[in-house]
Amino acid sequence: TQETAAAAAPTVAQPSFLTVTEVKVNVSMPEAAKKASETGADGVGLLRTEHMMLTTGVHPKKFIREGKEDELIKVLVENILKVADAFYPKTVWYRTLDAPTDEFQSLEGGEDEPYEHNPMLGWRGIRRELDEPEILKAEFRAIKKLHEQGYTNIGIMLPLVQHPDELRKAKEIAESVGLKPQKDIEFGMMVETPAAALTIEDFIAEGIDFVSFGTNDLTQYTLAIDRNNENVAGLYSERHPAVLKLISRVIKECNKAGVKTSICGQAGSMPDIVEKLVELGITSVSANTDAVPTVREVVARVEKKLLLKAARKLVQE
Ligand code: PEP
Ligand code: MG
Fold first, then answer.
1. For the purposes of burial, counting CB atoms within 10 Å of the CB of 203, is it exposed (0-12), middle (13-18) or buried (19 or more)?
2. Can you tell me which family this protein belongs to (predicted)?
3. How many CB atoms lie within 10 A of CB 231?
4. What is the pLDDT of residues 282-315, one digit of tens each?
């Protein structure tokens, strides 16, 4: 029940600065949720699923193949609960599985993962989940269970989306297990492909509550630089004008439509980029646990500057 979830809510440190732009935190390991919540962050802007799956030692598709969907759901519920509970009633955006073939090969049952020349451009993220909908269904069922227990603070975020059809299909799958996207659950997507950034209007038309910039991927796809390739690492930069231009257009379009914007890539922990994003009017920034206090300070400072500028303009008019 709602009461159970509320009773479980821990008391956390209050942020030292009041900010309008929310400062959230990224969580990759549910065991680290408590520490992350103690930063006083305004929620979880990215809860990754990959670690939850890797620690089982078993490929999620093996659970499905062997008719053990319930076991898979149990693993997910236990892990997501740790985070939803530590942050309750603050929002936790659960990102559905983003499993690159090369990283999931070593798991039991992952022996037949296809070999890909470019795993980063390959079968991962939402495109893979739509091909293996039983895994996505298990994730949605886990979230539905938690919702029924009162953890209504969980939202869903889709990775690596490049076409609105993917969004539509994922919503249909959510509906097929009894979740109502944008009605009883927040539903959003990552902006990680230039395609999504350049056509964000079409995704907005399809219906989303929020977007979050996955700048680790958005940078690699915009600059055509494999984020795991040391030979080209020197050219990799989130500060490239092309990346910032894409981000800027998305924030503009989303603000027009009342869609929330956030960032959960590494760039969300970089003060100079955070400064630009706040100036552009981003709704929230999600940083690594260690970076939350600094990011909060930067956000507060930039907001104060913007406020004083606006006030001065008013006085001069
Ligand atoms: C990103 O791409 O910026 C992101 C946050 O996702 P991941 O690093 O898990 O690919
Ligand atoms: Mg990514």
1. buried
2. Belongs to the PEP-utilizing enzyme family.
3. 8
4. 999 999 999 999 999 999 999 999 999 999 999 9
Check: CB of residue 66 under 8 Å from CB of residue 74: no
* Atom 4 of ligand 1, nearest CA residue: 214
φ/ψ (deg, to 5) at 275:
-55, -50
User: How far apart are alpha carbons 270 and 286 in whole angstroms?
Assistant: 11
Q: What single-letter DSSP state applies at residue 94?
A: E
ipTM computed for the complex? 0.99
Both tokens of 166, joined, read 């993917």
Contact by Cβ (8 Å): 228, 206: no
Tell me the pTM. Answer: 0.94
What residues does 210 pair with on adjacent strands? 188, 260
Q: To test the ligand 1 pocket, which listed residue (190, 220, 238) has its Cβ within 8 A of the most ligand atoms?
A: 190
Which residue type occupies 56? Answer: T
Residue 162 is which amino acid? Answer: Q
